[in-house]
Amino acid sequence: MNPLTQVVRATRPLYRKLSTTATLASAPKPIPPTGLCFELSEEQKALQDLARKFTKEEIIPVAAQYDKSGEYPWPIVKKAWEVGLMNGHIPEHCGGLGLGVSDSCLVCEELAFGCAGGIGNFGVFDECIIGEEFSFGCTGIATAVGGTGGMDVGVFDGCLVAEELAFGCTGIMTAMEASGLGQTPVIIAGNKEQQKKYLGRLIDEPLVAAYCVTEPGAGSDVAGVKTKAEKKGDEWILNGQKMWITNGGVANWYFVLARTNPDPKCPASKAFTGFIVERDWPGVVPGRKEQNMGQRASDTRGITFEDVRIPKENVLIGEGAGFKIAMGAFDKTRPPVAAGATGLATRALHEATKYSLERKTFGVPIAHHQAVAFMLADMAIGVETARLAWQKSAWMVDHGQKNTVLASVAKCFASEVANKSAADAVQIFGGNGFNTEYPVEKLMRDAKIYQIYEGTSQIQRLIISREILTAAKQSNA
């Protein structure tokens, strides 16, 4: 039994009783009447400490190496699986621990501290990144998309993990977390047989999944997906091309969104279907690994599907439910993304503070110069505020409240804090910050993608403004 399993099972009774993020079976968690509390439960602290220790011992020492080589961090993924840092969010009936998303986000922030590119591989990020968490703490959402229930974890827990992982390396974090994104649709919408087969597989072996939605002509406009599936007897024939798929070349199986109603007048909510597709099936062709600016430990590729035969048993919920499944996950996965960005910003602040106390100009450490000190202060303001944003958005989901606005606020704000903090860290390092021998240039490269994936900053602002205006119109009606 791995260390995390021992901790979780030993403290589960106490956790169920005291944790503000422990979910209730088949119902959102009740809102505690005692007001705000920023203290983590003992189980959450143990999980966070485990992730922090793993980050410092296993990720930070090799983050630069993986950034240079661009190799997928399989050794780290396997170690994370062995100690129990992967797949803790998978429901207990599938062999998982049923941890909350908030715990996962704590871990992700720590891991991204050392390398953000690999966290997507751990499966804690959608533990958080995207989606599993989405119905972990809110069975109402699972019911809305036709899910089977049984999700007993919270988004807040996943975010705890995400922040810890991101502290170490956002590249490795993304590699780990993207698996969670791929798992999310199965967690929130899969039946018991699908969950046991595909989620249970990840418990038995250190395998990962992937989320296949983005296409050459469909990024922010998900309704523009052209990949199609045609029903032939008891099978579906899948054809099309996906791009920018994280874990595309290493995943054991994919969640694939495809158009199943060819009528252009058919609304998006009914035109698409979600499928579980195994990578080794005939006709599944992963492309070359993309050479990205940052988060290079993450495996990003295009995938072509050529007459792939999918059994009807691998359809999620039913024909036409795919769009709701794919979109429903984002409110749950954006808080973990925000937690990862917060972890990177925390690392930038940590490195800049340390360097500013060592580097001297005019006879004193540069931290004593107000211009530098104020930059550190601004970084701290951003980190603390971003953390509060993801915590509230995750808390809302766990308690059955709609968090669409707050999830977008957290994702947008944290991603911008990460970019500004990384850029300011490079500035504080001066010429050394532009050199690969120092850690902050990598942080700057890794940070940019946070403003792009999981919905660009512009898309987040679009969502926020639409929700605000819609609410205002309804209140005036």
TrEMBL record:
GO molecular function per UniProt: flavin adenine dinucleotide binding; medium-chain fatty acyl-CoA dehydrogenase activity
UniProt KW Oxidoreductase keyword: yes
UniProt domain Acyl-CoA dehydrogenase/oxidase N-terminal: residue ranges: 41-117, 148-204
Record domain Acyl-CoA dehydrogenase/oxidase C-terminal: where: 320-468
Cofactor requirements of the protein: FAD
Keywords per UniProt: FAD, Flavoprotein, Oxidoreductase
Keyword Oxidoreductase among record annotations: yes
One Pfam family it belongs to: Acyl-CoA_dh_N
Biological process annotations from GO: medium-chain fatty acid catabolic process
Domain Acyl-CoA oxidase/dehydrogenase middle: 210-308
Top-level lineage group: Eukaryota
Protein name: Medium-chain specific acyl-CoA dehydrogenase, mitochondrial
Source organism of the structure: Danaus plexippus plexippus
